[in-house]
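DM between two lab members

TW: hey, do you still have the Diadenylate cyclase entry open?
JB: yeah, one sec
JB: this one, 288 aa:
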Amino acid sequence: MAPVDLTSVVNFLAGLGVRSLWDVFRTVLDISLVAYLFYKLFSLIRGTRAVPLINGVIILVVALQVAEALRFYTIQFILENVFIAASVALPIIFQPELRRALEHLGRGRLIKTSFRVDEFGDEERVRMIDQVVRAAEILGRTKTGALIVIERETGLNEFIDSGIKLDALVSAELLVNIFVEKTPLHDGAAVIRQNRVAAAACWLPLAEATVLPHELGTRHRAAVGITEQSDCVVVVVSEETGVISVAVQRQLTRNLDEKSLRELLLKLTEGNRRPGPVRGLFNWGASS
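TW: and the structure you got?
JB:
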């Protein structure tokens, strides 16, 4: 093995502006802080509706670089103007996420983090679906109104934060008790993340009244409304008729029995695995 030429190493470091051990320490610290800040940024964005928008921004950046390299001047001009408009629009679009990030900073929670990797296997998914189906059947039979939101790829943190945090294992008994009339948690939606009820009494946005039949009320409008903003699946039980429906991608499928509900939910949640914070750094579009 050839000996290391220390002069070459010194010259290389000098070219990088490194002339002492303090410079080395400062450079390492600088890189570490930037890496940590990017990690925290991804952790805060993960689990929100901002993720698809960030993915879109990344695609635009790549497209702009390709257009510049290939000298596609018209496309380059259009993309540059899109970025100018986006610089004004993004703070407005990301307002909930920016507020949440500032709240974390104000509470001193930037350092408190959990380096876990969550696994949501097929067995847990099937069990969760079975519990939801059984709960929906009981709620429909007793004509108890219910809204059960099942998170998929798009995170629902802002809606979870609007309710009462539970973080309880999904069970039919728990879901039925949540929606019993005149109980503290019955007014609003229960949100399921993986195989746990993340929160109850959650506020949901309403769809426009014109997109649904007039006989359907606020509960069904809320079910369709949240599917306009995310890819979640919502199970709705009518308080008046006991009819079970499923909302997904702005569409409402009504009059489901126990068997058809189970088959539909299994199909819609197939492959519904979510990464934890560490793995989410590299697959964060599927994430919180």
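TW: got it. The CA atoms of residues 143 and 240 lie 6 Å apart. The chain is about 50% helix and 10% strand.
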